[in-house]
Amino acid sequence: MAYADTILPEFDQEVANTRKVLERVPEDKLAWRAHPKSNTIGWNANHLIEIPGWVEGTLTKTSWDIAPAEGPHYQSPQLTSRREMLETFDKNVAAARRAIAAVKDDELGQSWSLLHGGKTIFTMPRSAVIRSFVLNHLIHHRAHLCVYLRLNDIPVPGMYGPSGEE
Hints:
By secondary structure, this protein is mainly α. It has helices at residues 3-22, 41-50, 55-60, 82-102, 126-151; strands spanning 63-65, 111-116, 119-125.
């Protein structure tokens, strides 16, 4: 069975669940944070929309330097409209899905590295990057956002069955 056939059902489920959460992001509470050391609702939402955008580069390049010495540093989106967030998320998901469908299985074992200023943060096989740096990372921050919604009395959508509000 091809890699795409094994990962795309999970990818599709997790991005659909993430989109349901993003649909509930309160535009009037983007600056809300649970604790002074916590990120805001807006930061978490923007982080969720950017994560699928990392897939294509993971599957087509050998590394990504988020802060190259020569050149601009990576900037996370800072969208403030739910509509723009959902449009950007959908665009990133579509590009990720195309990249996953197109990757050759023999390319998935190749190493990929995340760099900061030329220094390696981590190196993993591409398939492991998709599982951990993309899917697990997406689920992790989606959970933060779900807690933030609940703390603001915004109903949390069901994802693997009904939520407490359903």
